[in-house]
Amino acid sequence: MIKLSEAEWKVMTLLWQNAPQTMMQLTNHFKDSTGWSKHTVMTFLRRMEEKEAIYHVDGERAKLYYPEIGRDEAVLQETEEFLEKVFDGRMGLMLNTMVEKRAVSREEIAEMYEILRRAEEENRLREEGGRYGGDFDERDAADRCDSAFAVFNQGKDQHEISICPLEHSCFTAASAVVFWQQHIQCFKSGTGVAGAQCGGSGSGGDFKD
């Protein structure tokens, strides 16, 4: 886990927004708001490279700094650490505390309901995918099976079309259409519905070698 100080978060935010940056560009950006000197910025950059939060490439005149980790990854790590440290890892306790200490708008309540609805749906799909022997990726499954449905509707020969892009994939368009209708992912290479193997047949349609 990469731990960032408050000052390092400021640098990371700028790099996420507008990379690359040189040391002097960073210094000029933060000079008025923080009073950081170039030596201070240099120290931050060295420390952040040691943490593998950023990296640099040699430009024509100066080093160019880029973020090594994404914003979402850094935010998730920071949030999980805060949740564990302050609320013993209990998200419900954190939400209850926040609601009790401040007024919550209708928009915020609706947003929380939507987040919880998506979480519940993702958990359901993940459990459903597990029952069929594969990792479930809702967006990936929808994209693949929508494509399969479109191809199948065009009347193409189902035995000539392999939908899953994974190596050695064994699903035909017809199989993927059935999965699309059932909201089930085209599963990992080599395993079909209810454990049917490549080259065999299962309840999801015909498989090809």
What is shown here, in short?
The protein has 209 residues and is mainly α.
SSE order and pairing:
Elements: H1 6-17, H2 23-34, H3 38-50, E1 54-58, E2 63-67, H4 71-87, H5 91-101, H6 106-131, H7 138-153, H8 173-182, E3 201-202, E4 205-206
Antiparallel strand pairs: 1-2, 3-4
Helix pairs in contact: 2-3, 7-8
Tell me about this structure.
This protein is mainly alpha-helical and 209 residues long. The protein contains 8 helices and 4 strands; from the N terminus they run αααββαααααββ. It has helices spanning 6-17, 23-34, 38-50, 71-87, 91-101, 106-131, 138-153, 173-182; strands at 54-58, 63-67, 201-202, 205-206. Strand 1 and strand 2 (63-67) form a beta hairpin.
Considering the chains and any ligands shown, give keywords for the structure.
two-stranded antiparallel ribbon; 4 strands; 209 residues; elongated; two-stranded antiparallel sheet; 8 helices
Unreliable segments (pLDDT under 50, ≥5 consecutive)? 155-209
For the residues shown, what is the average pLDDT?
74
Strand order of the largest sheet: 1-2
The backbone outline, from C-alpha atoms, is: elongated
Helix/strand/pairing class, anyone?
mainly alpha
